[in-house]
Amino acid sequence: MAEIEFYSADWCSDCRRSKSLMDTLGVEYELFDVEQSKENADKSQAISGRHNIPVIKFADGNFLVEPSDAILHAELKIRGIIA
Question: What are the C-alpha distances in Å from 26 to residues 47, 72, 83?
């Protein structure tokens, strides 16, 4: 199981941007498509309390919603996921 749960949809530009950043950095994550599964959509909303995506949940339970690349990069670095 990956240290990061990534809740997104193909049509979401913020999701594609965050996914691209993590792919470029070689970050492993488990992808949950909220468009394809009501269960994934419900879980995403339960985590964040919002309908916004992407929701990026870390192993410690902390999460980001619609992060900028700078914020996502900083969180990955703080957590030691990237150097």
Answer: 24, 14, 11
pTM above 0.85, yes or no: yes
| 58, two tokens | 């870390």
> In sequence order, what are the beta bridge partners of 58?
4
Mean pLDDT score, 36-64: 97
For residue 43, give the H/E element and its range: helix 38-48
Contact 54, 66 (CB under 8 A): yes
Q: Which two tokens stand for residue 56?
A: 């990026």
Residue 23 falls in which region: left (phi positive, over 0), alpha (psi -120 to 50) or beta: alpha
Confidence at residue 2, expressed as pLDDT on a 0 to 100 scale: 78
CA atoms of 67 and 59, how far apart (whole Å): 17
